[in-house]
Amino acid sequence: MSQAVEARTSNPRSTPGTPRRRIRPRTVVKVVLLTLVALLFISPMVFMIVTSFKTRGDATAIPPSWIPMPFSLDAYKEILAPGTNTPVLRWFFNSILAAVLHSALVVVTASLAAYPLARMNFRGKKIVFAVIVATLLVPPVILVIPNYLLVSDLGWLNSLVAIIVPTAASAFGVFFMRQFFVSLPDDLEEAARIDGANRLQMFTRIILPLAKPAMATLALLAFLGNWNDFLWPVYVLFTPEVQTLPPGLSTLQSANAVRYDLLMAGAVVASVPVLALFVFLQRFIIEGVSRSGVKG
């Protein structure tokens, strides 16, 4: 009896309250592979940030270094200085304004169009939804000339309205919001109808508050699409005062072909809002995507 007690106390694996979990070799391999993949995707961003803090000579040194020697803010001071031919700060605020307004319009139009397709019955509903989804197969470049002619007739050329309004009616947004609305239980609207609520009240007070994750996800996707758009602003924006970041940074690149410190500094400025939005909205994105499946 005493030998059994001594053996139990001398073996740490059998001590009550302190179980040891054995690490499987497969788990170690997965962790190592995922770490390598993460480093593979993160390293270009890290190198971009590091290069933006280098001097002009250090940025073009061969072999390149991962540590700025010396640490310099000259690139940021140059691209953010007022009165230059490349007003990056002005482009930044133009892009912010255009992307925010565009994403807000996309969410509003998509929600209004998706609600009747998901929660109401009317003749031809499936045909309308099929036509909307079919437009996703049309390459966006085909619509450049018709949209340009329309924007020109409306007098919106060389203004931010030209990159905010034309693509605000998003077929993907309608599809995405419709799938989320379909996943909501019908009992919610039945209870509201019994209490005397009309369609508008059910939409604004019941459906939309529950759709916040989907709206946040759609807003982020619309923001990214407008923020990264290069082709359309090139056609409709002509002067530097109304230019946005993607075509503006291409001008910076052509004007300073070997100034990698300036190019990387501009890329860092363009990346900050996107990373901040993703960190802030990642919880809503995961919930919105997980609930916006292919139901219906």
Task: Explain what this protein looks like in three dimensions.
The protein has 296 residues and is mostly helical. It has a domain at 88-291: MetI-like fold (Orthogonal Bundle), CATH 1.10.3720. The protein has helices at 2-10, 25-52, 56-59, 74-79, 88-119, 125-134, 144-154, 161-164, 171-182, 187-194, 199-210, 212-227, 231-236, 245-255, 260-291. Helix 2 (25-52) packs across helix 15, helix 5 crosses helix 12 (212-227) and helix 14 runs antiparallel to helix 15. It is globular. The chain starts with a helix and ends in a 5-residue tail after the last helix. The model has no long low-confidence stretch (mean pLDDT 81).
Could you give a quick summary of the protein structure above?
This protein is mainly alpha-helical and 296 residues long. The protein has helices spanning 2-10, 25-52, 56-59, 74-79, 88-119, 125-134, 144-154, 161-164, 171-182, 187-194, 199-210, 212-227, 231-236, 245-255, 260-291.
Strand runs, count: 0
The level of helicity is: 55-70%
**CATH architecture label of one domain:** Orthogonal Bundle
**What global shape is seen?**
globular
Oligomer: single chain
Q: At the first level of CATH, what is the class of one domain?
A: Mainly Alpha
Task: Give the SSE map.
Layout: H1 2-10, H2 25-52, H3 56-59, H4 74-79, H5 88-119, H6 125-134, H7 144-154, H8 161-164, H9 171-182, H10 187-194, H11 199-210, H12 212-227, H13 231-236, H14 245-255, H15 260-291
Descriptive terms for the model:
296 residues; mainly alpha; 15 helices
